[in-house]
User: Which sequence fits this backbone?
């Protein structure tokens, strides 16, 4: 993305931002209901034993985020969400210390469950 974005002018960025902010979100839907239910528990309650706060404490109960602070994560493709969390966990994505710390405590199963839950969250 950086390779493409680095060549954009300020006007280009403003125009792209305006365009994408007007697009309708079309959430994908959870394909594994049991896995999504497990993800819902982590999303809403966290995991005290592993020191994981609830995702909803930052991203909100519906995953809509807080503009400028926490991104919208509801309706995101499960594969993208899982890949992003794994990248935070292994340090290959290092642009958010808070998410790196939280992701480092997530198990593989929790990552997959969260990704599945968020795919169907509207």
Assistant:
């Amino acid at each position: 993305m950086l390779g493409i974005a680095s060549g954009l002018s300020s006007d280009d960025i403003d125009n792209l931002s305006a365009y994408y902010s007007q697009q309708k979100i079309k959430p994908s839907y959870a394909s594994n209901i049991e896995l999504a239910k497990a993800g819902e528990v982590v999303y809403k309650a966290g995991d005290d034993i592993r020191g994981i706060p609830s995702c909803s404490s930052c991203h909100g109960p519906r995953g809509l985020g807080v503009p400028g602070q926490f991104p919208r994560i509801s309706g995101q493709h499960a594969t993208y969400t899982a890949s992003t969390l794994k990248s935070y966990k292994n340090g290959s994505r290092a642009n958010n210390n808070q998410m790196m710390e939280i992701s480092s405590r997530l198990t593989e199963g929790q990552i997959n469950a969260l990704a599945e839950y968020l795919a169907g969250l509207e």
User: Anything to note?
Assistant: The two ends are 26 Å apart (CA to CA). Residues 25-120 form a domain with the Cytochrome Bc1 Complex; Chain D, domain 2 fold (CATH 1.10.760.10). The chain has one domain: 25-120.
